[in-house]
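Target protein
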Amino acid sequence: MMHHKPPQDFFRRGLPLLAAAFMQASLLNAATGGKIAGRILQASDKAPLLGANIVVEGTFLGAMSDAEGDYFILNVPPGVVSVKTTMMGYKTLIKTRVNVNTSHTTTVDFLMEETVIEAGEVVTVTAERPLVEKDKTATRHFVEAEEIAARPTSQLTDILATLPGITRDPGGELEVRRGSLDQISFLIDGIRARNPLDFEPYTNINLSSIQELEIITGGFNAEYGEAQSGVFNIVTKEGSGRLSGSSEFRWTPPGKYHWGTALYDYSTTRYWENTHARHLEWWIDNPDQWIDSNGMYGNDARCIWTPEQAYQDYMNTHQPLTDYTNRSGYQGEIALGGPAILKGLYFFTSMRYRTAPPITGNSYRKMGTWLDGTAKLTYRLNERIRLMASGFYGRENTNTGMEWMELTTGLAGKYTYWDYAGYPENRIDGQTLKMTHVLSKSTYYEIYADRIFRYRSQSTFPGDEGGWETGTVTEDRLRAVDESGTPVPGAYGNRIGLHNTGYFYRGKDRITDWTLSGDLISQINKKWQFKGGFDFTYYVIDRFQEAKAWAIVEKDVYYPWEGDIYFQNKLEFEGLIMNLGLRYDFYNPNDRVYLNLFDPFDLISAARENRTPSAQTRETSTFGQLSPRIGISHPISDKTVLHFAYGHFFQRANFGNYGEGTGTYSDPVNGILNTYVSNPLLGDPAPTNLGNRELRPRKTVAFEVGIERNFGGLIADVTAFYQDITKTVRTVKVLMLNNTKYLTTGNSDYSDSKGIEIEIRRPLSGFWGGYLNYSWTTGIYG
């Protein structure tokens, strides 16, 4: 009864949209370069100099000043560079430590001094970095490689959690202005590094490979999409003409990394077993508080065990499963970059391996392991064409109890492995090919081809394949009760052995994204920069999942696709900078819509009419949304800037996730392409969870206003924001013609978020720098 579209449908319906996108613009992936602009003046009388040559040292990037002394250089890689200007009859001037950021204009002015020395003189000065960004039209933060290296953490999420507007929920997950991580666009060199099934991002990127983090928590431009709350844009390092590298090793000593008493601490009197059951005398004195292997109490004449045998059985089955407090962890990371064999070819690669013990004692894996790597090759074919190939890889071997606690049965289950979610495996790898072609000093374009593959599975513990069908909970022999007959906590039917609850679900996903995208950037004149682009992604989602308790399965291959077109204009005047953009997003689940909501598979009507089921369906529609984006910055002085942003932000719902799909808060039904049906081996595959193929994209209308001020090297920023969130996704119960039900999804719930963010920061300089943040938020959860 399930249907999906074959890949050929992409060529029938997707290519025309793709062709139209090519005709209208060039490409989605956000450009990763910045712009240097400024003015060349004569030092003696501040007169503009025409014809001065300005170059970014170590690159082919450069410009010449015009009649007003102005110049600009596009597509400068983010990082710290040196800028040199030369002109006959004037001293050569070099400004070092010029900071360049993604999609940001860095102002570098020069005052040229005349010289009578024929060969000219060279003057080197250190550039002063403006502490207040004049073109900041929304809440945006840059964290550069130097600052990342100075921080004591080794995890990207720990850095993100220190930034304004980013907090952790009670479960430790990051939130951006009350929005969860599935509302974030997470980019690595332009690749959307997240799982389309649930939008979970890949955050294990190696810190040694990061050149710059661009974090936008409000008012992002039209070039960014598939997000409601923010954009995390990561630019990785490139090799240079000089061989360089770094290495790091961290060791974590053994210990207890949770609050309270250690799970298997037999010296504490807090645990009932330590004061009672772990002593033979208790078994002898209380034969009415335990049973033998046949369920007979110790004081029953039919009991086949002596107190000594019952005690020994208890001691044999109540041993620590993992010596988690006695294991140490370690992490090693290495990075290397530099020139390769060919002239103009450079490489950069990094690798990190981490291992850690579980945080609780009943984790099935005795140690967790994580392997993450990145690699990038860049090749300058000539002065106009540059090629890049990059990739990343991540693999984690972990499970519940490794990094977080989930002891639903509490201490009563500490002698069983937590098998509810089974044994997970996760892998991800991504590759990008990119060409940058400079058409002129004011125009260039970039073309990307991306592939991302994700493998995710939940299965039974190794060697316990039969446990899916037969695995049952085993209880120990304790039956201790108090004087009123109430079971004593921690002393009545505790769970032991392999199964704590029994497996509840299993599954296996193989997901491949194919994306073609890029950008066109043109500096129309000194005041106007234009960007235009599109992106098209075609998915192959090979899914299998099964819920044991409900005897339901999903096994299918889906081929959804999505894309966008955008136009972005940046206007830079003396006291006003504006980002004006328009974006159009579209997507198609590329499947079938069931027309009879109350009998989608036609099983009920066919049975009543004694005929073969023939479901009424039609092809899914293509959904499109138009998003205006406005950002305004008003530099009052070189120390004070006002900024305002307004925009519409759209994001489709996810395609579907693991779980039993019970519709509860912890296990909601929220996907577009779920097709959970009753097990075909038990009869006709009646729907249990059926994704809504016509689910509308979630919409956020947001605005913010703020002021940033430099107080003697300390930057203070106060920003107020409001987000109006509609078409949120909720679980819907449908009662069918035969009074049975299934779950699907719908749009109707409403949410909002509003708050104030106060930040005081000192950019890293010398030996110190840091942030002091305060956020107050409130809102309605739909």
Remarks:
- The CA atoms of residues 150 and 767 lie 9 Å apart.
- The chain has eight helices and 44 strands.
